[in-house]
Amino acid sequence: MLDQIKGLHHVTSMARDARQNNEFFTKKLGLRRVKKTVNFDAPDVYHLYYADEVGTPGSVMTYFPFPNIGRGRHGVGEVGTTVYSVPEGTLGYWEKRLADEGVTDLSRDEIFGEKRLAFAGPDGDGFGLVEDKADKRAPWAKGGVPSDEAIRGFHSVSLRLRDGGATEELLKFMGFEEVDKAGNVRRLAVKKGNGADIVDIETLPGAGFASLGAGSVHHVAFAVENRAKQLDVRKALMDTGYQVTPVIDRDYFWAIYFRTPGGVLFEVATNEPGFDRDEDTAHLGEALKLPSQHQHLRPYLEQHLQKLED
Protein backbone atom coordinates (compact mmCIF):
# COMPACT_ATOMS: atom_id res chain seq x y z
CA MET A 1 0.00 0.00 0.00
CA LEU A 2 1.29 3.45 -0.92
CA ASP A 3 1.79 6.16 1.71
CA GLN A 4 2.71 9.15 -0.49
CA ILE A 5 -0.83 10.31 -1.28
CA LYS A 6 -2.22 12.89 1.17
CA GLY A 7 -5.82 13.36 0.08
CA LEU A 8 -7.34 15.28 -2.79
CA HIS A 9 -5.43 17.95 -4.70
CA HIS A 10 -8.02 19.38 -7.12
CA VAL A 11 -11.13 18.58 -9.12
CA THR A 12 -11.37 19.70 -12.75
CA SER A 13 -14.71 20.10 -14.51
CA MET A 14 -16.28 21.41 -17.70
CA ALA A 15 -18.48 24.49 -18.06
CA ARG A 16 -20.31 26.37 -20.80
CA ASP A 17 -19.85 30.01 -19.84
CA ALA A 18 -16.69 31.40 -18.22
CA ARG A 19 -18.28 34.54 -16.77
CA GLN A 20 -21.16 32.61 -15.20
CA ASN A 21 -18.73 30.05 -13.82
CA ASN A 22 -16.52 32.74 -12.29
CA GLU A 23 -19.52 34.48 -10.72
CA PHE A 24 -20.82 31.25 -9.19
CA PHE A 25 -17.60 30.34 -7.41
CA THR A 26 -16.35 33.77 -6.42
CA LYS A 27 -19.67 35.47 -5.56
CA LYS A 28 -22.09 32.73 -4.57
CA LEU A 29 -19.66 30.33 -2.91
CA GLY A 30 -17.19 33.01 -1.81
CA LEU A 31 -14.07 31.25 -3.05
CA ARG A 32 -11.01 33.00 -4.41
CA ARG A 33 -10.03 32.79 -8.05
CA VAL A 34 -6.37 31.94 -7.63
CA LYS A 35 -5.45 31.56 -11.30
CA LYS A 36 -6.71 32.78 -14.65
CA THR A 37 -4.92 30.88 -17.38
CA VAL A 38 -5.78 28.77 -20.45
CA ASN A 39 -6.18 25.13 -21.39
CA PHE A 40 -2.79 23.72 -22.44
CA ASP A 41 -4.36 21.85 -25.38
CA ALA A 42 -6.96 24.47 -26.36
CA PRO A 43 -5.50 27.89 -25.55
CA ASP A 44 -8.60 29.74 -26.72
CA VAL A 45 -10.38 28.23 -23.67
CA TYR A 46 -9.81 29.44 -20.12
CA HIS A 47 -8.55 27.28 -17.29
CA LEU A 48 -9.92 28.88 -14.12
CA TYR A 49 -8.94 27.88 -10.58
CA TYR A 50 -10.98 28.60 -7.41
CA ALA A 51 -9.72 27.83 -3.92
CA ASP A 52 -8.76 29.26 -0.55
CA GLU A 53 -6.41 32.24 -0.19
CA VAL A 54 -3.31 30.56 -1.66
CA GLY A 55 -4.69 27.60 -3.61
CA THR A 56 -3.90 25.00 -0.97
CA PRO A 57 -4.07 21.45 -2.34
CA GLY A 58 -7.37 19.98 -1.21
CA SER A 59 -9.28 23.22 -1.83
CA VAL A 60 -8.86 23.76 -5.57
CA MET A 61 -11.78 23.52 -8.02
CA THR A 62 -10.78 24.10 -11.63
CA TYR A 63 -12.80 24.58 -14.82
CA PHE A 64 -12.49 24.45 -18.58
CA PRO A 65 -15.33 26.70 -19.83
CA PHE A 66 -15.85 25.68 -23.47
CA PRO A 67 -18.25 28.15 -25.14
CA ASN A 68 -21.40 26.45 -26.49
CA ILE A 69 -20.43 22.98 -25.25
CA GLY A 70 -23.42 20.69 -24.73
CA ARG A 71 -24.45 19.66 -21.25
CA GLY A 72 -23.01 16.39 -19.98
CA ARG A 73 -25.16 13.40 -19.11
CA HIS A 74 -24.75 12.18 -15.55
CA GLY A 75 -24.37 8.49 -14.87
CA VAL A 76 -21.82 5.93 -13.81
CA GLY A 77 -18.12 6.23 -14.58
CA GLU A 78 -17.75 9.74 -13.22
CA VAL A 79 -17.31 11.89 -10.14
CA GLY A 80 -20.93 12.49 -9.19
CA THR A 81 -20.65 14.95 -6.32
CA THR A 82 -17.90 17.27 -5.12
CA VAL A 83 -18.41 18.08 -1.45
CA TYR A 84 -17.01 21.04 0.48
CA SER A 85 -16.43 21.32 4.22
CA VAL A 86 -18.10 24.08 6.23
CA PRO A 87 -18.18 24.75 10.00
CA GLU A 88 -20.66 23.06 12.30
CA GLY A 89 -24.04 24.76 12.46
CA THR A 90 -23.73 26.68 9.19
CA LEU A 91 -25.96 24.74 6.79
CA GLY A 92 -28.89 27.02 7.60
CA TYR A 93 -26.82 30.04 6.58
CA TRP A 94 -25.78 28.33 3.36
CA GLU A 95 -29.25 27.10 2.49
CA LYS A 96 -30.62 30.65 2.73
CA ARG A 97 -27.65 32.19 0.94
CA LEU A 98 -27.79 29.77 -1.98
CA ALA A 99 -31.58 30.02 -2.28
CA ASP A 100 -31.34 33.83 -2.31
CA GLU A 101 -28.68 33.56 -5.02
CA GLY A 102 -30.94 31.42 -7.21
CA VAL A 103 -28.97 28.20 -6.82
CA THR A 104 -31.10 25.18 -7.73
CA ASP A 105 -31.72 21.62 -6.55
CA LEU A 106 -31.18 22.45 -2.88
CA SER A 107 -31.85 19.51 -0.57
CA ARG A 108 -30.84 18.32 2.88
CA ASP A 109 -29.85 14.84 3.98
CA GLU A 110 -27.56 13.07 6.39
CA ILE A 111 -25.07 10.29 5.68
CA PHE A 112 -22.37 8.75 7.85
CA GLY A 113 -23.66 10.93 10.68
CA GLU A 114 -22.90 14.14 8.77
CA LYS A 115 -25.44 16.82 7.87
CA ARG A 116 -25.23 17.68 4.19
CA LEU A 117 -26.71 20.29 1.87
CA ALA A 118 -26.77 19.26 -1.79
CA PHE A 119 -27.08 21.78 -4.64
CA ALA A 120 -26.39 22.20 -8.35
CA GLY A 121 -23.86 24.34 -10.15
CA PRO A 122 -24.68 26.47 -13.21
CA ASP A 123 -24.39 23.50 -15.59
CA GLY A 124 -26.06 20.93 -13.36
CA ASP A 125 -22.82 20.07 -11.55
CA GLY A 126 -23.35 18.06 -8.38
CA PHE A 127 -22.12 19.79 -5.21
CA GLY A 128 -22.58 19.41 -1.49
CA LEU A 129 -21.67 21.09 1.79
CA VAL A 130 -20.96 19.02 4.89
CA GLU A 131 -20.65 20.34 8.43
CA ASP A 132 -17.27 19.28 9.84
CA LYS A 133 -16.47 20.63 13.28
CA ALA A 134 -12.99 19.06 13.18
CA ASP A 135 -11.87 20.95 10.06
CA LYS A 136 -9.39 23.64 11.17
CA ARG A 137 -8.32 24.82 7.70
CA ALA A 138 -8.43 28.57 7.19
CA PRO A 139 -11.01 29.90 4.70
CA TRP A 140 -10.69 32.71 2.16
CA ALA A 141 -11.82 35.64 4.27
CA LYS A 142 -12.45 38.21 1.52
CA GLY A 143 -15.02 36.42 -0.63
CA GLY A 144 -18.14 37.99 0.85
CA VAL A 145 -18.89 35.08 3.20
CA PRO A 146 -18.17 35.59 6.93
CA SER A 147 -15.17 33.57 8.09
CA ASP A 148 -17.28 31.68 10.61
CA GLU A 149 -19.41 30.26 7.79
CA ALA A 150 -16.96 30.15 4.88
CA ILE A 151 -15.90 27.04 2.96
CA ARG A 152 -12.75 25.40 4.32
CA GLY A 153 -11.85 23.23 1.33
CA PHE A 154 -12.94 19.89 -0.04
CA HIS A 155 -14.49 17.34 2.25
CA SER A 156 -14.82 14.52 -0.28
CA VAL A 157 -15.73 13.38 -3.76
CA SER A 158 -18.28 10.71 -4.60
CA LEU A 159 -17.62 8.29 -7.46
CA ARG A 160 -20.63 6.78 -9.26
CA LEU A 161 -19.78 3.30 -10.53
CA ARG A 162 -21.62 0.23 -11.81
CA ASP A 163 -19.22 -1.99 -9.88
CA GLY A 164 -17.06 -0.35 -7.26
CA GLY A 165 -14.93 -3.36 -6.35
CA ALA A 166 -11.88 -2.80 -8.57
CA THR A 167 -11.79 0.95 -7.92
CA GLU A 168 -12.06 0.30 -4.19
CA GLU A 169 -9.05 -2.00 -4.42
CA LEU A 170 -7.16 0.67 -6.37
CA LEU A 171 -7.90 3.31 -3.73
CA LYS A 172 -6.76 0.94 -0.99
CA PHE A 173 -3.52 0.41 -2.93
CA MET A 174 -3.21 4.23 -3.10
CA GLY A 175 -3.33 4.43 0.70
CA PHE A 176 -7.05 4.78 1.43
CA GLU A 177 -8.88 2.59 3.95
CA GLU A 178 -12.55 1.74 4.19
CA VAL A 179 -13.92 3.58 7.22
CA ASP A 180 -17.70 3.19 6.86
CA LYS A 181 -20.54 1.99 4.65
CA ALA A 182 -24.20 2.91 4.29
CA GLY A 183 -26.47 1.21 1.79
CA ASN A 184 -24.78 1.25 -1.61
CA VAL A 185 -22.08 3.74 -0.52
CA ARG A 186 -18.67 2.81 0.81
CA ARG A 187 -16.47 5.47 2.39
CA LEU A 188 -12.70 5.37 2.09
CA ALA A 189 -10.27 7.80 3.69
CA VAL A 190 -6.55 8.41 3.87
CA LYS A 191 -5.12 8.87 7.35
CA LYS A 192 -3.08 11.97 8.23
CA GLY A 193 -4.09 13.65 5.00
CA ASN A 194 -4.51 17.29 4.06
CA GLY A 195 -8.13 17.60 5.25
CA ALA A 196 -9.63 16.60 1.91
CA ASP A 197 -9.25 12.95 2.77
CA ILE A 198 -12.42 11.13 1.72
CA VAL A 199 -13.62 9.29 -1.38
CA ASP A 200 -17.11 7.78 -1.38
CA ILE A 201 -17.95 5.00 -3.85
CA GLU A 202 -21.62 4.86 -4.83
CA THR A 203 -22.49 1.61 -6.61
CA LEU A 204 -25.34 1.84 -9.15
CA PRO A 205 -25.40 -1.45 -11.11
CA GLY A 206 -28.29 -0.54 -13.44
CA ALA A 207 -27.42 3.08 -14.21
CA GLY A 208 -26.42 4.37 -17.64
CA PHE A 209 -22.94 5.60 -18.39
CA ALA A 210 -22.05 9.27 -18.04
CA SER A 211 -21.13 11.36 -21.06
CA LEU A 212 -18.70 14.29 -20.81
CA GLY A 213 -19.99 17.85 -21.25
CA ALA A 214 -20.79 21.01 -19.32
CA GLY A 215 -21.41 20.10 -15.69
CA SER A 216 -19.20 16.99 -15.85
CA VAL A 217 -16.06 16.37 -13.84
CA HIS A 218 -13.18 15.78 -16.23
CA HIS A 219 -10.83 14.31 -13.61
CA VAL A 220 -10.05 14.22 -9.90
CA ALA A 221 -6.49 14.76 -8.68
CA PHE A 222 -4.76 13.37 -5.60
CA ALA A 223 -1.98 15.20 -3.77
CA VAL A 224 1.64 14.20 -3.24
CA GLU A 225 4.25 16.40 -1.64
CA ASN A 226 6.83 16.54 -4.42
CA ARG A 227 8.08 15.11 -7.70
CA ALA A 228 10.14 12.37 -6.08
CA LYS A 229 7.08 10.94 -4.32
CA GLN A 230 5.06 11.33 -7.51
CA LEU A 231 7.61 9.20 -9.37
CA ASP A 232 7.34 6.55 -6.64
CA VAL A 233 3.57 6.49 -7.11
CA ARG A 234 3.90 6.34 -10.89
CA LYS A 235 6.27 3.37 -10.76
CA ALA A 236 4.06 1.50 -8.29
CA LEU A 237 0.96 2.04 -10.44
CA MET A 238 2.76 0.92 -13.59
CA ASP A 239 4.18 -2.13 -11.81
CA THR A 240 0.59 -3.00 -10.90
CA GLY A 241 -0.46 -2.82 -14.56
CA TYR A 242 -1.88 0.68 -14.93
CA GLN A 243 -1.12 2.74 -18.02
CA VAL A 244 0.18 6.01 -16.59
CA THR A 245 1.20 9.09 -18.57
CA PRO A 246 4.67 10.57 -18.32
CA VAL A 247 5.05 13.45 -15.87
CA ILE A 248 3.53 16.63 -17.37
CA ASP A 249 4.46 20.15 -16.27
CA ARG A 250 1.22 22.06 -15.53
CA ASP A 251 3.09 25.22 -14.41
CA TYR A 252 1.62 25.16 -10.87
CA PHE A 253 2.10 21.43 -10.26
CA TRP A 254 3.40 18.36 -12.06
CA ALA A 255 0.81 15.80 -13.09
CA ILE A 256 0.41 12.16 -14.09
CA TYR A 257 -2.87 10.64 -15.29
CA PHE A 258 -4.41 7.17 -15.53
CA ARG A 259 -7.86 5.70 -16.12
CA THR A 260 -9.46 3.73 -13.29
CA PRO A 261 -11.32 0.41 -13.69
CA GLY A 262 -14.64 2.22 -13.19
CA GLY A 263 -13.86 4.72 -15.95
CA VAL A 264 -12.98 7.78 -13.85
CA LEU A 265 -9.81 9.66 -14.83
CA PHE A 266 -7.41 10.01 -11.89
CA GLU A 267 -4.50 12.42 -11.65
CA VAL A 268 -1.68 12.52 -9.12
CA ALA A 269 -0.44 16.11 -8.71
CA THR A 270 2.42 17.62 -6.73
CA ASN A 271 1.96 20.28 -4.07
CA GLU A 272 4.91 22.13 -5.61
CA PRO A 273 5.56 24.73 -6.96
CA GLY A 274 2.16 26.30 -6.16
CA PHE A 275 0.07 29.15 -7.53
CA ASP A 276 2.39 31.93 -6.34
CA ARG A 277 5.18 30.92 -8.72
CA ASP A 278 4.20 33.66 -11.20
CA GLU A 279 2.00 36.01 -9.12
CA ASP A 280 2.27 37.62 -5.73
CA THR A 281 -0.13 36.05 -3.24
CA ALA A 282 -1.97 39.36 -2.83
CA HIS A 283 -2.84 39.37 -6.55
CA LEU A 284 -3.50 35.72 -7.35
CA GLY A 285 -5.93 35.18 -10.21
CA GLU A 286 -6.00 38.77 -11.40
CA ALA A 287 -3.81 38.73 -14.53
CA LEU A 288 -4.08 36.36 -17.48
CA LYS A 289 -1.20 33.92 -17.13
CA LEU A 290 -0.18 31.88 -20.17
CA PRO A 291 1.94 28.75 -20.51
CA SER A 292 5.23 29.57 -22.20
CA GLN A 293 4.27 27.82 -25.43
CA HIS A 294 1.20 30.07 -25.75
CA GLN A 295 2.77 33.43 -24.90
CA HIS A 296 2.83 34.42 -28.58
CA LEU A 297 -0.99 34.22 -28.57
CA ARG A 298 -1.41 36.84 -25.84
CA PRO A 299 -2.64 39.72 -28.07
CA TYR A 300 -5.26 37.48 -29.68
CA LEU A 301 -6.36 35.84 -26.41
CA GLU A 302 -6.66 39.11 -24.49
CA GLN A 303 -8.90 40.38 -27.26
CA HIS A 304 -11.06 37.29 -27.75
CA LEU A 305 -11.37 35.55 -24.37
CA GLN A 306 -14.63 36.39 -22.60
CA LYS A 307 -14.35 39.11 -19.93
CA LEU A 308 -14.90 37.60 -16.51
CA GLU A 309 -15.89 40.86 -14.82
CA ASP A 310 -17.11 44.29 -15.91
TrEMBL record:
Residues 7-132, 153-271 form the VOC domain. Keywords: Dioxygenase, Oxidoreductase. Pfam families: Glyoxalase. It comes from the Bacteria. InterPro entries: cNMP-bd_dom (IPR000595), Extradiol_RC_dioxygenase (IPR052537), Glyas_Bleomycin-R_OHBP_Dase (IPR029068), Glyas_Fos-R_dOase_dom (IPR004360), VOC_core (IPR037523). The keyword Transcription regulation does not apply. Residues 77-122 form the Cyclic nucleotide-binding domain. Transmembrane segments: none annotated. GO terms for molecular function: dioxygenase activity. Its EC number is 1.13.11.-. SUPFAM superfamilies: Glyoxalase/Bleomycin resistance protein/Dihydroxybiphenyl dioxygenase. PANTHER family: RING-CLEAVING DIOXYGENASE MHQE-RELATED (PTHR36110:SF2). This is Putative ring-cleaving dioxygenase mhqO. It comes from Mesorhizobium metallidurans STM 2683. The gene is mhqO.
